[in-house]
Amino acid sequence: MLIKICGITSSEIAETAVQAGADFLGFVFAKSKREISADQARKIIAALPEHVKSVGVFVNKDVQEIEKIARITGLDLIQLHGEESAETVSSLTLPVIKSLPGTEEGIKKAAQYDAASYLLMDSPPLPHAHGGNGISFNWSMLKDYTFSNQLILAGGLTPENVAEAIQLVNPSGVDVSSGVETDGKKDPDKIKAFIQAAKRTIERNR
Ligand SMILES: O=C(O)c1ccccc1N[C@@H]1O[C@H](COP(=O)(O)O)[C@@H](O)[C@H]1O
Questions:
Q1: pTM for this model (two decimals)
Q2: Complex-level ipTM beyond the 0.95 threshold
Q3: Cα-flanking dihedrals φ and ψ of residue 105, to 5°?
Q4: What does the pLDDT look like over 7-21, one tens digit per residue?
Q5: Candidates 3.50.50.60, 3.90.1150.10, 3.20.20.70, 1.10.287.110; CATH matching 2-205
Q6: Which residue CA neighbors atom 19 of ligand 1 most closely?
Q7: 132 lines ligand 1 (CB under 6 A)
């Protein structure tokens, strides 16, 4: 199971997450307090070890713009966190993580996104923010579904609740942003605690 830490804005926090055992690091190229420039992201990504993959997070951006940022920064995967179509997913040249709201309607839409390597279930967007809101949804609604894509669970995960979420949903991955922050900034101790809690649960479930 993979662990993604999202909203990386510094080399120090990237290094902390890598040392703690993160598999994916997320870089937000969308309106957010965690937004990062392509130039800053490029420098951080260039220093990542081969086994840690960089994910660019986009919200309703043009394919050309996404591809341009991916080229400049050296991204490994693209996360589409808005209302992007199945055609947009298919036209991207990198593997895609497509987010959908964790609602009955969101689950129904999943079938359209066969071309995505991963589906990411998050709480529904707020009017002013598509993601990174620290809000959970009813995870148990995912228990009875099997998706053709690998499932990443997100939305309000924390070091305290990630074990319960993994037990309940058994996803292919978990993704966190707000839950590893203190006063709006990434907190190294919370990142370590989150990754430890997730890994401990995975080990126990083996
Ligand atoms: O992290 C952000 O700022 C962000 C901005 C725009 C779209 C997505 C964003 N992050 C993703 O949101 C979910 C949930 O985050 P949280 O843990 O509830 O804060 C997660 O998939 C992030 O990758």
A1: 0.97
A2: yes
A3: -65, -45
A4: 999 999 999 999 999
A5: 3.20.20.70
A6: 132
A7: yes
